[in-house]
Amino acid sequence: MEISKAIRRVDNDEKVSGIAKFIADVKLEGMLYAKTLRSTRPRARIKSIKIPKLPNGYFIVDKNDVPANNRVKLIFTDQPFFAEDVVNYIGEPILLVVGPDKAKVLEILEQIEVEYEDLEPIFTIEDAESGTKPPIFGDDNLFADYEFTKGDPDAAFARAYRIIEGEYRTGIQEHIYLEPQGMLATYEDGTVTVYGSMQCPFYVKNALVYALGWPEDRVRVVQTTTGGGFGGKEDYPSLIAGHAAFAAIKTGRPVQLILDRTEDIEATTKRHPSIIRHRTALDASGRIIAMEIDIKLDGGAYATLSPVVLQRSMFVSTGPYHIPNVRVRGRAYATNNVPRTAFRGFGAPQSIFAVEMHMTNIAEALGENPIDFKMRYFLKKGDDTATGGSVHTDVKLDEMTRQVIEMSNFYEKFERFRKEKGDTVLRGIGFSAFLHGCGFTGKGEEVIKATAKLRRRDDGKVEILVSSVEIGQGAQTTLRKIVAFALGIPMEDVVYENPDTSRVPDSGPTVASRTVIIVGGLLEQAAKELKARWNESGEIEVIKTYRHPEYVRWDDEKFVGDAYPEYSWGVNVAEVEVDPVTFEVRVKKVWGVYDVGTPLDERVVRGQLEGGIVQAVGYATIEVMESKNGKLMQNTITDYIIPTSIDAPEIETRLVVSPYPYGPFGAKCLGELPMVGCAPAVAAAIQHALGLKVDEIPARPELLLKKWLEKSR
Amino acid sequence: MVNAYRPSTIDEALRIRNETKALPLAGGTDLMVRYKNWAGLPPKFSQPVMFVAHLHELKGIEVEGDELIIRSATTLTELLKDGRVPEVLKLAVKEMASPLVRNIATIGGNICNASPAGDTLPPLYALDAKVVLRSVEGERTVPIEDFITGPGQTVLKENEILCEIRIPMDEFDSIFYRKVGTRRANALSKVSFVGLKNLQGDRIDDIRIAFGAVAPTVVRSRDAEKMLKGIKIDEIEQIYPSIEAKYAELIRPIDDQRSTAEYRKIVSLRLLRFFLLGKAD
Questions:
Q1: Does A201 sit behind a cis peptide bond, omega within 30 degrees of 0 on the bond before it?
Q2: Does pLDDT of A421 surpass 80?
């Protein structure tokens, strides 16, 4: 399609040249700086806070300065903006010191003495499960506890010829967006305006309205050029937007709050670590007749988005496979760790890792090639999903798998590497197949009812009015392209500014790979209507509100039906080299074939695919984050290691297109998909190279050496 | 706030150092990180600072007799470009940090930082390098293993500046270097290993082995090296257990944010075995 051809990204020049202004670059007249006093204890009662005498022009902002509700409004309202009587994680904000001179602000901060009375902390899922320590959240210490069943798993297990079990673990992952979190708030004429780096302007606005108890028209949120998000700027910005806003209201001056990198790593959200157990029932012919999956997530100190993360994790926990009988249990535990929340893939990378490794292990147990084994279970159009919904459009996994086998020469290498016994290198190759549910999970889209607006202005330009933001993923380019192509007008005639909640409708947050398929879909519809009305004179406004396609059925109580209106699909092959002396892993090459529907810009798509693969390679191998007594050991970018350009594998990707009739130009979802499914291909390749089970990521050399020595014993 | 000095000669630098105890700062790639402050504020130095990277007396590489002299403010990139710099030192430098950091980081800085994970150190220990320290009172030359006494600890006096590194121009037939980092660039070492060997016929004539990041200072055992000298290559296997035992005693790594003590120790010995016997298991 013409639209698929790559064009120059509209934000290319200002970002590459360094002209783009991020929130830390903004300095306003009379602006004050805020710095956060944070808890140094994982769980404690605050007995007293001793504050030195403040010089003129310096302020303390704390729980008493939150006008209405000292709670960040999200799914629950358990998280305070500022700690009240207890702290629940190291890094939790207690108060701000605000003033004109940064050195003085720091000096005051360092003089504040907090007296704590330590409480018994809960650090791990095992800790939380033991139930021996007082709960952090509710009576059972669970942010969510769900279960759903399809078919009759009990009967299937009862008649099983063989049951194969496995336990899989995934680690913490840190977002490491290029731009640390930051906000700037002003208070003028009774209105508070917050500018900053964010994915979801209306989440921030709604949180502020709730905290302030003010009418909506006195709260305004404006997104500024945002240097990456990956989910880390989904809910966290609401917390610090509150901080900046309360400070601006108290001082009557603009207040800037920017996190330094170490502060950002220590205090902001992470990907949920998980423990996932699989039990699979096979009949006498080796065919899978049922799966039982138990997912446990460590949610950290506050609920954030954990319940929905857990839902997505569960809904895709049988992978891209058609399994007749399924039971999935999921629990998200409260712990005294920094909160975990959204991160590219949103619970799916954990459960896809588990199911893919488990399927590989079943194939090995049956003495079969993992690809041949997995292919037999691929979902097809018309099949029912894990939640008993339906696959409504064509699935091209067979064709995609055939392509990736041919691209990577999988079979030949799979046999050859197994026979090689290198003294200086061990080679392995691994395969993974995966899917991603497009848009919000479950009832999400029904609740948010995304609204998008197109306006043809008096100057003839067409303006996109949505709350979706550019965070580096290409939204500025892609959404403009949709409108320009649908209207048949030049790209330059489409205007799309960073959203300002006083000007745009709520098209929902920039999350869940929903920006193109949902918001882009609304813009395509709006553009078509605008085109039909093009000859009208003067300004024209077209507003569209999202509704699922007719066929979507969902029971949010029982978790039955279409958890997603549509899916994108992917397959990966990874080839690795493991050093047999040190067990360092080098991911040599990753091949990927993806179906994201119609690509709306081939270079933007490739950027997302390659970036996602590299992020997943880091997740699978080197991104180690450990917590010792609630304190993160890797709190700098020196110690929290993500792949550099020379760690990144060679990457070869292809697209296979099964268009989505309700997506713009047939597009589906893209952003998360490559992150969701690559880690198990890498882990399977390491497993193949070493001949030992890789049931845990990151598969760091320390872990592999330990397993190697256990095996040799 | 502290004073910062920018002398124009080494003599002026030595005078300032003597009077103010100013901390010499060359590339600053360690010091600026160690003393970093809230963005927008100057770094939190606790003593005066003296810039030395521009002093021409501290720049350059030359040969004097059978010694290679590397002046202390020579950058890592400059080391890589010089044909006379020992290959094993280059192998280590090539894997340090990134090209940007190597362009300003200096060899003198890496030595004075005295990190257990300092990557120029194992090659310098193995090469029998010495450092030349100057002050207004004079000059002294100290073997590198006597210069560094512990993590971040050296015998550098408050009025001294490390001016030169002197390396005997020995040649080796076999040069083996391995850095085990957390990734392939811009990473600190978990373990590093240097193995140098000269054979006469099938006997070991000279052998040098050094380990980095697995003890408070670089591990080198002259005892173990003595045991290996004169031995036939195919006889190493017989005495290997006693060699390994020597090193196992000296290798005392820690658990930290980059690796575990267990991994560091086992991998050090696996590298030793690989170097001496050609296989790790």
A1: no
A2: no
